[in-house]
Design a protein that fits this description.
This protein is of the alpha/beta class and 328 residues long. 41% of the residues lie in helices and 14% in strands. The chain is elongated and about 70 Å long.
C-alpha cells in the first residue's frame, strides 16, 4: 500500500480517469464536476487527468468524438484510478485491463462507474469481493465473473481499495463518498451543495429501478387492466378482476399471465406501489391517505412494501424524490 495515497493540503490527490470507447460523456462529467469543486485551504483537493488506450479522438455514446491526448502511461501517476463506463455492453480493452491490474498491485485505489466494473472483473480485482454495476448489466457481470459477490441493486460498493458503482447518477454518490473518505463529511456535503445534488447517500441504497413489468403481448385483458388502474383505491380481489372481465378466475389468470408475464395479483401490487410512489413525489398527503388511495390499506403496509421495493421508508422516499416546488 502506498503511504502517500491519502491526500494532503499541499498536494492534490491525483485521480486518473480511463475513458473507454465508446465513452458515456455523463460518466466523465461526474468526476470532473465533483472533484473540481474540492478546495482545501484554498488549494485544489484533486488533480484530474483523463487517458485512454489510443490517444486521440474517442467515440462517445452520444455520437460525438472527444479528444483525449494522454495514453495509459498516465495511470502510473494516479492515487485513484477511475474506469468510466459506456452505459452499455462493450469489448474490454486488454491494455486497460493490464494498466488497472498494475495500478492495483502498486497500491492505488481502483474504482469504476457503470460498465467499467467489467474491466475490474477482467483484471481479477473483483474475485472474492463485493461489487456492483448498472442493473441492466448485472446478470451478465455475474454470469461472466462468478467469483465476485454481486450486489446487483445498490448504488455503490466499497470493498477494501476497490470501489464500484452502478450506472448514471450512482456515480455521483460514489464520487461524493470518495471525497468524504479523503477529506471528511463537511467537504463532501459542501461539494454536494455547490453541485446542486443530494448529499452523500449510503451505498447500500437501492438503484431505484422501476422493476419493470415484462412488455404486454396482447390486448384481451386490456379492459380489465384499465378498469383496475381506475380503481386502485379499492380492495380488488382476483374474483373482482375475473368478474369484470366476464371470465372465470382460471381463465383470467391464464390470459393475464400470457399477456403480461406476471399473475394478475403481481401486476396489481406493482401498480399499487407505483401509484403510492407517484403520490409521495407529487403530493403532501399523509401516509395513511396515500396507502388508502393506492389500495395498500394502511400506513404500515405502505411502509413494508416500499421498503421492500426501494430500500427507503415512505418519508425518506418523499424527502429524496418529491417533485413539489420547494420554498425557502
Amino acid at each position: 500500500m502506498r503511504s502517500d495515497r491519502k491526500p494532503t493540503p499541499w498536494r492534490p490527490h491525483r485521480v486518473v480517469v480511463i475513458a473507454p470507447s465508446p465513452l458515456s460523456m455523463f460518466n466523465l462529467a461526474i468526476p470532473e464536476l465533483l472533484f473540481s469543486k474540492v478546495e482545501i485551504d484554498g488549494a485544489p483537493g484533486y488533480e484530474l487527468t483523463v487517458c485512454t488506450p489510443e490517444p486521440g479522438p474517442v467515440a462517445t455514446t452520444g455520437g460525438l468524438d472527444l479528444y483525449v491526448g494522454l495514453g495509459l502511461e498516465a495511470v502510473a501517476d494516479a492515487d485513484t484510478v477511475l474506469v468510466a463506463g459506456t452505459g452499455q455492453r462493450y469489448t474490454v480493452d486488454p491494455r486497460t485491463v493490464e494498466a488497472v491490474r498494475a495500478a492495483a498491485a502498486d497500491g492505488r485505489r481502483i474504482t469504476s462507474i457503470c460498465s467499467g466494473a467489467f474491466v475490474l472483473a477482467e483484471a481479477g480485482l473483483l474475485d472474492g469481493r463485493s461489487a456492483t454495476t448498472y442493473w441492466e448489466l448485472a446478470e451478465e457481470l455475474r454470469r461472466r465473473y462468478p467469483a465476485l459477490d454481486l450486489k446487483g441493486d445498490v448504488l455503490y460498493v466499497e470493498d477494501g481499495d476497490v470501489m464500484t458503482s452502478s450506472g448514471y447518477a450512482a456515480g455521483i454518490d460514489m464520487c461524493l463518498h470518495i471525497i468524504r473518505t479523503d477529506y471528511g463529511a463537511a467537504v463532501a456535503n459542501q461539494v454536494a451543495r455547490a453541485a446542486l445534488v443530494a448529499p452523500v447517500r449510503p451505498g447500500g441504497q437501492t438503484q431505484f429501478t422501476q422493476t419493470p413489468l415484462p412488455p404486454e403481448r396482447g390486448v384481451a385483458c386490456a379492459d380489465v387492466r384499465g378498469w383496475a388502474m381506475r380503481n386502485l383505491d379499492r380492495p380488488l380481489t382476483l374474483a373482482d378482476l375475473a368478474r369484470h372481465a366476464g371470465v372465470s378466475v382460471r381463465t383470467l389468470t391464464r390470459r393475464f399471465q400470457a399477456e403480461s408475464g406476471v399473475s394478475p395479483l403481481q401486476w396489481l401490487l406493482h401498480q399499487r406501489i407505483e401509484r403510492a410512489k407517484e403520490l409521495l413525489e407529487t403530493t403532501t398527503l399523509a401516509m395513511d391517505r396515500i396507502a388508502e388511495a393506492s389500495g395498500l390499506g394502511s400506513a404500515d403496509s405502505l411502509r413494508a412494501h416500499l421498503v421492500r421495493r426501494t430500500g427507503l421508508t415512505p418519508s425518506a422516499y418523499r424527502a429524496g424524490f418529491s417533485r413539489l416546488e420547494r420554498v425557502g
